[in-house]
Design brief:
70% helix; 3 helices; 0% strand; mainly alpha; 71 residues
């Protein structure tokens, strides 16, 4: 019973998250892309990660200038 209720609540949360991301994307696609990119970096990079970036790397551009190079 509790497991079923937890799964239902989790599904509702996932649906709400998808709806919110959809709204964000429709209002500002470039900001949405930047936000999702930064969230991805946060998941894969930590204080023990060493990254070697090329001078034309979008990640380097974001870290140095705070902006995404693509629109």
């Amino acid at each position: 019973m509790a497991y079923k209720q937890a799964e239902t609540i989790k599904g509702q949360g996932d649906a709400e998250s998808t709806r919110i991301y959809g709204q964000a994307y429709s209002k500002n696609p470039s900001f949405y892309k930047l936000l999702r990119t930064l969230e991805s970096y946060k998941k894969v990079l930590d204080d023990k990660t060493t990254a070697i970036l090329s001078s034309d790397s979008e990640l380097l551009r974001v870290l140095m200038k705070g902006e995404s190079g693509s629109k």
